[in-house]
Design a protein that fits this description.
322 residues, mainly alpha, three-stranded antiparallel β-sheet, 3 strands, globular
């Protein structure tokens, strides 16, 4: 990776991700990949990536200590349904991190609506009038928000933080997509099980409990091959690019949002949500243009300037997707 101390170095490192194979991406820190996907977003810069990576290292050591500290209580627990040692380890990491960074405290004082939507509403930023009003602040969808003093986060960032910590400890924590939600899964040769740390209580629901949980699934979602399986490294990158697109749409940066969404669909072709979102972006962009047409000022003789992002991808990358 290039120098991560400068914005230019971060942008170069970000661009390099899309030239990597699955094997190469698997060697990269999932926390670093997530942070790179937030570079250039509103409320993200200046993004001190080396500082956040050091935070992740410290959190991993803290989680390791908490797992060791709680292990005697796990062994002494006579409950036959307490789960395997791996279940204990993943639960203990999530609980330790939730308590340390402030997620647990937020759940204790959260309103019912905040908990039901699995994210905490950020009211500090001025609404843009665009879609996804809760994602105007990039800190809600990427882990730098959880690593900040305000501990902003959502089900898009919580499982990434847990995976970044677990993998530092050598625990095989994966990301799993479901409809409007992401959770973690422990995957090794001995066993596989789900663990969801984005709810008010850490739980391990089976896959079928997520079907129709937040809304009724569509026919294509029921048949999708993209859901309820561990994501490959390229597919993790796709999920981060989709979250980037959501933030860009929320900030009325529709051209950039379309580019990010096309990259996500290119990285994971079987995830129809990434294709469907492109139509939603087009509708939102058309609606904004219509509003601007109505607001045309004849004295100025021109329409208001449409805000677009400067773009984080090379022209060659975008041409590959057209």
């Amino acid at each position: 990776m290039d120098d991560l101390q400068t914005l230019h170095g971060c942008r170069r490192a970000f661009d390099q991700l899309f030239d990597m194979s699955d094997e190469q991406l698997a060697q990269e820190d999932i926390g670093l990949v997530n942070l790179l996907c937030a570079v250039g977003l509103p409320s993200a810069d200046p993004l001190n990536i080396p500082f956040h990576l050091a935070q992740l290292d410290r959190l991993a050591e803290y989680a390791r200590e908490e797992v060791v500290k709680g292990y005697p209580r796990y062994v002494a627990n006579p409950n036959p349904t307490k789960g395997s040692e791996s279940v204990y380890k993943l639960w203990a990491v999530m609980h330790a991190i939730r308590c340390k960074v402030g997620i647990e405290a937020k759940f204790k004082r959260a309103t019912t609506e905040e908990v039901s939507h699995r994210e905490f509403i950020d009211t500090s930023m001025k609404p843009t009038g665009g879609p996804y009003k809760n994602r105007v602040n990039s800190q809600v969808g990427f882990i730098h928000g959880l690593l900040s003093p305000r501990c902003l986060g959502s089900c898009a960032s919580n499982p990434v933080l847990f995976a970044a910590i677990c993998r530092r400890l050598g625990y095989p924590a994966k990301l799993v997509l479901t409809v409007q939600h992401i959770f973690n899964r422990w995957v090794d040769d001995a066993e596989q099980f789900n663990m969801d740390g984005s709810m008010s209580r850490i739980g391990g629901d089976a896959d079928h409990h997520y079907i129709n949980r937040y809304r009724r699934w569509t026919e294509w979602e029921l048949k999708s091959t993209a859901l309820h399986r561990p994501l490959a490294p390229r597919e993790e990158l796709a999920a981060f690019m989709f979250n980037r697109s959501i933030c860009e749409s929320a900030n009325l940066q529709f051209e950039a949002a379309m580019n990010s969404c096309k990259v996500a669909a290119w990285l994971q072709p079987d995830q129809f949500a990434y294709v469907n979102e492109q139509s939603i972006i087009e509708l939102n962009q058309s609606g904004r243009r219509e509003r601007e047409r109505v607001a045309f000022n004849p004295l100025q003789g021109q329409y208001p300037e449409i805000v677009t992002a400067s773009g984080s991808f090379s022209a060659r990358k975008i041409q590959l997707l057209m």
